[in-house]
Specification:
Helix content is about 35%, strand content about 5%. The chain is mainly alpha-helical. The protein has one domain. The radius of gyration is 23 Å and the shape is extended. The structure holds heme C (HEC) (2 copies).
Amino acid sequence: MKPTFLSLPIAATALLVVAVSALTAVAQAPQTAPPAGSPPMQMRSFPAPTNLQALPKDLTGQQVHEIMEKISGSLGSHCDTCHTADPNNLGPNGRPQINFADDSKPEKKTARLMILMAEEINKNYISKVDNSGMMVTCGTCHRGHLSPEPFVIPDEHGGPRPPAGAPPAGATPPSAN
Ligand code: HEC
Ligand code: HEC
């Protein structure tokens, strides 16, 4: 079951992942044969998730990764916005690796609520109105920002009013409310 808040075709992300792996492969081309037993670049695998509480628990590591790429893009943020680095687990570059299953960041907890919220909005509300099939996604509200930008009503629809006592020439005075 694919969560409804992901309206983009999953194949698009799959392509992206393949493209990125291809780039990595090219960058490493001068190297001779890969170490014995290592999987080919295109087969890069993601470990199965162990701590899903909002997404369907049967997602594969690859599916979770694709969803996470979309969430990051929709919020204009990076993996470490919601995930914590583990100082006791240093990677090959000597930098702490991210522990994705860890729940200590408040942003991760908020994101879980948001996943459930978006599901509910689609299932219980959007699906009940006559619509084009468009679903509410993280990007519907966030539009590339961690905190959605406040919407400002454009002028011609009763947006920001001129300061009180200084109506523009010829304007009807604003009503009492
Ligand atoms: C806006 C917050 C947010 C961002 C940004 C984010 N994640 Fe996540 N991630 C979550 C949440 C929330 C969960 C848990 C989902 C659940 O409980 O069903 C999760 C779960 C995961 C898991 C599964 C961990 C496990 O074992 O259960 C992986 C792997 C993961 N994220 C990788 C990434 C990667 C890679 C990136 C960057 C490309 C990323 N995440 C960016 C919020 C985020
Ligand atoms: C219906 C609109 C809406 C949708 C859909 C939505 N969000 Fe949000 N989100 C908000 C609002 C509003 C806030 C509060 C922002 C604030 O107070 O600055 C927020 C806050 C957050 C925060 C906390 C930001 C911070 O500054 O700490 C995270 C993380 C987040 N959302 C993740 C998500 C993810 C992931 C999705 C998709 C699964 C999502 N949101 C979908 C409206 C939405």
